[in-house]
Amino acid sequence: MSRIFSFLIAVLLVLPALAGSDDDAVVPGAQYMLRNVATGSYLMKDGTITKNEAKASNWRVVTNDTIRYSDAEKLYIVYSDDAVMQLTNSGGGWKVAFTGKGNTTYVMPSTTTEKGFKFRYRFALDTRYLNVEVDAEGNEKLTAARTASSYNDWEFVPTTHPKAYRYRLMSMNRSGNNTKYTLAYLSHDVTGEEVWLSGWTAVPTASEGGACNADHLLMSTHYTMCKNSEVPSQTDPYDGFTFNLSRNKPVMVEPDYLGYGITKDREHPYCAPDIMAEESVDLLLTVHDLLRDMHAMDCSTGAYPTYGIGYSQGGAIILACQRYVENSPKLNEEQRKAIHWVRTCAGAGPYCSLATISQYYFQDRLSMPVAAPLLVMGMVAAYPDIFGDIRAEEYFSEAFNAAGIVDKVRSTDYTIDELNEAIQKACGNTMQGMLSEDAKNTNSDLSQHLLKALGRSDLTRDWSPKADIWFFHNTDDDVVPYLNTMAAYKRLKDHCQGECAVYTTGVGMSHLAAAIDFMARMILGNYK
Questions:
Q1: What is the DSSP string of 384-418?
Q2: Which of 308, 320, 183 is nearest to 252 (CA)?
Q3: Backbone Cα Rg of the chain
Q4: Residues 471-477: what's their mean pLDDT?
């Protein structure tokens, strides 16, 4: 089950006192004010309290699954802007603090108030609660109380003055000096409309939850995934392995892509580089905000350069990210300076989708048959201005459509292997078996729309790269033709201001086996 749904269920099970019904349950990422039940005062992010609702800070919650004192109590983080609630004792006395360090406090149901809860923290055998203390003159202040009472009961109250947040945390997992986040962030869909997307980032720190001690960021765009449970925000991604073993210990950044994670109900614009690049770079800039807010790391000066790695679909997307950072008018110079893109390591990517599908037509029999429908469906989803009312199903044979393959892909419930098996069972693993008669005719209106879209997705057009580009590819690749890399290299090398090179890897290996070779090189830090 995904982390998001696990979190929602945990809130309902662990904090029943917060809700009279499921509709009242605290929602991850939603904004709330924190009101003391006994006094009616609101909690502020500077560690004070106020009676003025209009000035009350907005708060959000996120789970941390790494620590439990019992099955009945789960660790929560309550945070607002750059303030994370801390009720701590490091041996020098109890403190109530609100900083970006990322320390955490338990939330437990109240035993005295129906919809209330308490913030609880334990140091050795001493347990304390976030409390409002009222003196004889009626003055209020926050304290860490030993005794449970109504003065340390709080309520989540929907805010009357929501703020425009760029991101929201969905989970945080701290282990030693590493912190891994899944987060939702704002970007744009294929029509330019604002949309919340999801991604994953891992941060090395000097101490648990403390300042980041990385000297660079590593953006990693993942290979083709068809099942939603496989994408970074839903499971610890393969790049978590890279992060844990890397000699370089970077801040790692990995997007889910539109159509996955929290947008699994949307169509995925597969191999549409401009769209995917914008969404991926938006995550990178969002992580800059997260590092500033939570880990005292200022990326605005460009002191923390960015390297990019990606394999297969990810190889094309990471190259598109470099082009977007260097060329897109949607970024300003301050953002380009902050990102400071140094090098792209692109492995076996379809840099020219038109060349890829042309090779598929030529060879006919495919070792990964789902690649063809993914390309077609991706183009239709990405470029509505080209396709208009044309549906993806029009490109496929009756046998293909009768097997419901398009719906299976859209559902994001099936792995690549499962989809390959379904296609082979329905119509074999050939282009002839998969495509409709109209789609096989390259002169047809239907084909011309597809060819136009594929041409638009060519990554090598209209670009003089500034940063280094290192291509990696296996000459025996059975999924993405090697000619993709050589064509991209030949077109870019004479215009590249940095180093443009090709490294032949995984000779004699399949596309999948060569991916292991590529990632091994990245784990060893060869991108840097």
A1: HHHHTT--GGGGB-HHHHHTTHHHHHHHT-S-HHH
A2: 308
A3: 26
A4: 92
- CA torsion angle for 204, 208, 209, 210 (degrees, to 10)? -80
Whole-number Cα distances in Å, 91 to 122, 124, 142: 12, 10, 20
**Token pair for 421:** 């098996």
Pick the CATH number of 3-158 from 3.30.300.30, 2.80.10.50, 1.25.40.10, 1.10.486.10: 2.80.10.50
Length of the chain in residues, anyone?
528
Cβ contacts of 70 within 8 Å, gap of 6 or more = none
Cα distance between residue 516 and residue 527, in whole Å: 15
Cβ-based neighbours of 199, under 8 Å, separated by 6 or more: 182, 183, 185, 232, 233, 253, 254, 255, 256, 261, 283, 286
Q: Which is more confidently placed, 512 or 386?
A: 386
* pTM for this prediction: 0.84
Lowest model confidence (mean pLDDT) among 80-89, 213-222, 488-497: 80-89
**Mean local confidence (pLDDT), 14-27:** 46
Model pLDDT for residues 479-513, shown as the tens digit of each residue: 998 988 998 999 999 999 999 999 988 778 889 88
Domain spans of the chain? 3-158, 175-352+462-523, 366-456
Higher pLDDT, 283 or 146: 283
User: What is the third-level CATH fold of 175-352+462-523?
Assistant: Rossmann fold (3.40.50)
Residue 302, C-beta contacts closer than 8 angstroms, at least 6 positions apart: 337, 338, 339, 340
Quote the strand ranges of 355-480, DSSP E: 468-473
CB 161, CB 142: distance < 8 Å? no
Q: Please report the pLDDT score of residue 120 as a whole number.
A: 80
- Quick check: 83 and 44 in contact, CB under 8 A? no
* Strand (E) or helix (H) holding 181: strand 178-188
C-alpha–C-alpha distance, residues 327 and 346, integer Å: 18
506: left (phi over 0), alpha (psi -120 to 50) or beta: left
DSSP classification of residue 478: S
> Exposed, middle or buried by CB within 10 Å (0-12, 13-18, 19+), for 478?
middle
Tokens of 496: 């590249």
Bridge partners of residue 132, in order along the sequence = 142
Nearest to 198 by CA among 266, 270, 245, 249: 266
**DSSP one-letter string for 91-149:** SS-EEEEEESS---EEEEE-SSSTT-EEEEEEETTEEEEEEEEE-TT--EEEEEESS--
Cα 421 to Cα 330: distance, rounded to the nearest angstrom: 41
Q: How far is C-alpha 468 from the geometric centre of its chain's CA atoms? A: 25
